[in-house]
C-alpha cells in the first residue's frame, strides 16, 4: 500500500503579494489531512528548470517537502516562503540555462518544457497548483496542454488576471494605497501642493481607480485611457483651490500614458522573459508638467508638486483580512478539484461567488477597466452610479 494517495506540487511565480502563504497553507493542510504528500517548488518555475532529476542530487534549493508546522508558521505572513521568480521555461535565455542542460540547449532563447515535464515526472507530482498572475499562469496553461494536471490560483495586485473578479493581493494593495495616500496628505496640505502618487497597474487601472472611488484621491489616471495633461492640470488646480488646506491628490497608474505618447514610461530598455520592460517614471512626468502648467490656471502663480511612488510599499508586509480569507477559500477549492480529479481549471470569483473556469481563459484576452462603465474620462475620476447589486469590488471580469 502506498504511503500516500498522491503528490501535489505548489509554486508561486511573478511578483510577491500578501496572501500567497495563506494559499499555500490552505492547500497543504487539506492535502496532508487527506493523505497526500505536498511538495513546494521553490522560486516559481525556476525550481522546475534548475532541478536535477537524479536520486542522490541535492535539490533542496529547488523543492521542499511541506508539513503542517512549516505552513502554519508561514501562513500568517506576507510574501512567499517558497520564493518566486519571473522564469519562463518556454523562453529561457541561454545565460540562465542550468549547467547540466547547456550542451542540449545552446540557443539564445530556449524552450526547455521537455525538461520540466521530465522533472515533474521525477518528483512524482500528480497535480500541480501554480499561484501567479497571467504570465505565470500562461505557462501553467502550456503545461495543461502538455498533459500535466494543473489547477491554477490567481494572484496579482493589479487584479488583472482574466476570468476572475478577484486576485490574491488586490485587497491589501488597495488598503495600503488608501492608507499611504491619506498619510501623504499631511505633507501635501502643509505645503499647499499638488500630490502625485504613482501606483502599480501596467495594463489595468484597478489599483488607482478603486482607492480613488473610496475617497483616497481627487482624480486618477489609468492605462485604459490616455490623458491630456493640460486638462488634468486645470481640474487639479480647481480641486486644490476649493480645498480648505489648498492641496489636491491624483493617483497615477504606472502604465498610464499622456495623450499622443506612443508608449508607457519605462525605467530601462531591459526586457524580462515575458517580454515586459520595467515600468516607472510616469509620476515624474506628470509632476513636472503640473508644476510647469499650473500658473496658467492659478493666476500666474506656480504650484509646487509632491511626487511619490508607492512601489513595493503596497506589496510588502502581512495580508489584510480579505487576503487572508480569499486565499484560504481558493486553496480549499483547488484541493476539492484535486479530489474530484478535475484539472485545467482556474479558481475564480464571479459576482461575489467562488467558482472555477477553464485555465485557457488566462491567455484569451486582457482584463482591463471597462472605461464606459467605471471611468469618467472628462473628469479623470471613477463613475459613482449603479452600485446596487454590484459585487464587493464593483468591477467584474467579463467572460
Please describe what this structure looks like.
The chain is built from 11 helices and 17 strands. The model has no long low-confidence stretch (mean pLDDT 93). Strand 1 (7-12), helix 1 (20-33) and strand 2 form a beta-alpha-beta unit. The longest helix is centred in the middle third of the chain and has 22 residues, at 170-191. The protein is elongated and about 80 Å long. The protein folds into 2 domains: 7-168 and 317-363, Rossmann fold, CATH 3.40.50.450; 172-314 and 371-382, Phosphofructokinase domain (Rossmann fold, 3-Layer(aba) Sandwich), CATH 3.40.50.460. The protein has 399 residues and is of the alpha/beta class.
Net shape: elongated
Question: How is the CATH topology of the largest domain named?
Answer: Rossmann fold
Count of discrete structural domains:
2
The strand order across the widest sheet is: 3-2-1-6-7-14-15
The CATH architecture category of the largest domain equals 3-Layer(aba) Sandwich
Reading off the top of the CATH hierarchy, the class of the largest domain is best stated as: Alpha Beta
> Structural class given helices, strands, pairing?
alpha/beta
| Main sheet record | 7 strands, mixed
Mean pLDDT: 93
The helix-strand sequence is EHEHEHEEHEHEHEHEHEEEHEHEEHEE
Strand segment count: 17
Amino acid at each position: 500500500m502506498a504511503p500516500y494517495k498522491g503528490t501535489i506540487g505548489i509554486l508561486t511565480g511573478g511578483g510577491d503579494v500578501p496572501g500567497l502563504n495563506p494559499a499555500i497553507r490552505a492547500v497543504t493542510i487539506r492535502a496532508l489531512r487527506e493523505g497526500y504528500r505536498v511538495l513546494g517548488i521553490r522560486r516559481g518555475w525556476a525550481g522546475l528548470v534548475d532541478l536535477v532529476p537524479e536520486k542522490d542530487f541535492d535539490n533542496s534549493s529547488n523543492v521542499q517537502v511541506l508539513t503542517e508546522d512549516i505552513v502554519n508558521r508561514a501562513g500568517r505572513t506576507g510574501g512567499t516562503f517558497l520564493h518566486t521568480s519571473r522564469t519562463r521555461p518556454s523562453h529561457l535565455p541561454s545565460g540562465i540555462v542550468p549547467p547540466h542542460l547547456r550542451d542540449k540547449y545552446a540557443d539564445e532563447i530556449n524552450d526547455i518544457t521537455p525538461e520540466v515535464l521530465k522533472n515533474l515526472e521525477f518528483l512524482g507530482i500528480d497535480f500541480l497548483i501554480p499561484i501567479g498572475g497571467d504570465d505565470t499562469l500562461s505557462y501553467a496553461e502550456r503545461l495543461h496542454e502538455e498533459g500535466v494536471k494543473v489547477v491554477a490560483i490567481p494572484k496579482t495586485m493589479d487584479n488583472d488576471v482574466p476570468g476572475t473578479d478577484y486576485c490574491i493581493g488586490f485587497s491589501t494593495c488597495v488598503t495600503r494605497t488608501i492608507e499611504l495616500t491619506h498619510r501623504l496628505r499631511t505633507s501635501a496640505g502643509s505645503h499647499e501642493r499638488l500630490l502625485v502618487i504613482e501606483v502599480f497597474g501596467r495594463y489595468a487601472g484597478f489599483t488607482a481607480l478603486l482607492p480613488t472611488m473610496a475617497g483616497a484621491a481627487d482624480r486618477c489616471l489609468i492605462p485604459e485611457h490616455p490623458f491630456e495633461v493640460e486638462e488634468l492640470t486645470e481640474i487639479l488646480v480647481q480641486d486644490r483651490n476649493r480645498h480648505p488646506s489648498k492641496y489636491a491628490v491624483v493617483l497615477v497608474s504606472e502604465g498610464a500614458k499622456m495623450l499622443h505618447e506612443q508608449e508607457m514610461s519605462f525605467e530601462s530598455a531591459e526586457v524580462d522573459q515575458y517580454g515586459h520592460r520595467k515600468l516607472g517614471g510616469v509620476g515624474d512626468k506628470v509632476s513636472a508638467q503640473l508644476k510647469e502648467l499650473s500658473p496658467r490656471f492659478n493666476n500666474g502663480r506656480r504650484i509646487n508638486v509632491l511626487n511619490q511612488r508607492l512601489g513595493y510599499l503596497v506589496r510588502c508586509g502581512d495580508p489584510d483580512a480579505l487576503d487572508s480569507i480569499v486565499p484560504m477559500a481558493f486553496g480549499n477549492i483547488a484541493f476539492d478539484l484535486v479530489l474530484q480529479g478535475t484539472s485545467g481549471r482556474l479558481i475564480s470569483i464571479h459576482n461575489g461567488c467562488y467558482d472555477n473556469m477553464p485555465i485557457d481563459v488566462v491567455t484569451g484576452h486582457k482584463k482591463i477597466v471597462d472605461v464606459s462603465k467605471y471611468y469618467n474620462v472628462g473628469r479623470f475620476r471613477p463613475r459613482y452610479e449603479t452600485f446596487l447589486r454590484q459585487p464587493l469590488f464593483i468591477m467584474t471580469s467579463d467572460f
